[in-house]
What does this fold into?
Amino acid sequence: MRTGRCGPRSLWRAAPRRLRTSSPSRWRNRPARTGTSVRGRTRSVAVPVLGIIGPGRAGVGLALALAAKGFDVRLHGRSKKPVPKPLALTVGPETEPPAWIAQAGVVILAVRDDAITPLAAILARSGAVRAEQVVLHLSGSQGQEAHAPLVGSRAALGSFHPLQTISEPERAAERLKGAWVAVEGMPRAVQTAEGLAQDLGMRPFRLPANAKAIYHAGAVFASNYFVVVEAVAQRLLRHAGLSDADAWHALRPLVEGTLENLEQQQPIAALTGPVTRGDETTVRRHLDALTADDAMLYRVLGRAALELAQKRGMDAATAARVAAALATDLPPVLRPGVKT
It folds into this structure.
């Protein structure tokens, strides 16, 4: 029987729980799930065990999404806290590995970025990680180097970073489906991460470790700083006389319209506003009305908008006037069709 796409079968150990499911596995490195059809027959096999250390929003959300796909998920943390069903949380000192770690073919470190290497060091000192296991972390800015203490274990080390927000763990499965995920690391870790992505309905793409920081910076601009900019806009409308609630209700249709534009076209085509129109008078009026901090942010973003406007064909004279209004230099732009 053919199974999925990832490395040796020995990666996965048999788990005590059994489950029936109707779809075949995508993995080579784990047993086929119960219910896989072979010439019309159904055979009962063990469900793969996957362990997650770190019961935060990302860890719990990923655990729920994987459990929904038939994995036997083990979740571990330092202190007791409620977790959604069907998950169960094991608790232990941060200086000791989870009791279940020997059963897990894949161990995911779902902790904050600066805790990954210390946790890897704890696992290394305990000798709990074996060569046939895969260890992944969820950091967007770090690569396999964060697992450095575990190199001696000869386990496959890598990273799995969903390009999606998980603010509500219970909705993780639907939010992750269709999302892109950056995978990186040793070959077997990358193959395993790609298999996980496929099981979750995600789109994996490979990144070298030295590209992760700039990749993650882009993700922060797209998600985190987008929220910050909306908070600034809300505050400015409050200064204009609206309540916080009314300001956000007023802005939401504008934000939704912008997102709809971005669904249909790339940012360079979707950009609107005074900078792209070359309206330097409006730009000056805005800057006169803003506080020093807000004006600084407006100028930085305005310069970025001017770069897009130039790439879209704004003439040099208009770009120079807008740059003067922003009190900034002209951004260097390679215009379409210009060869170097």
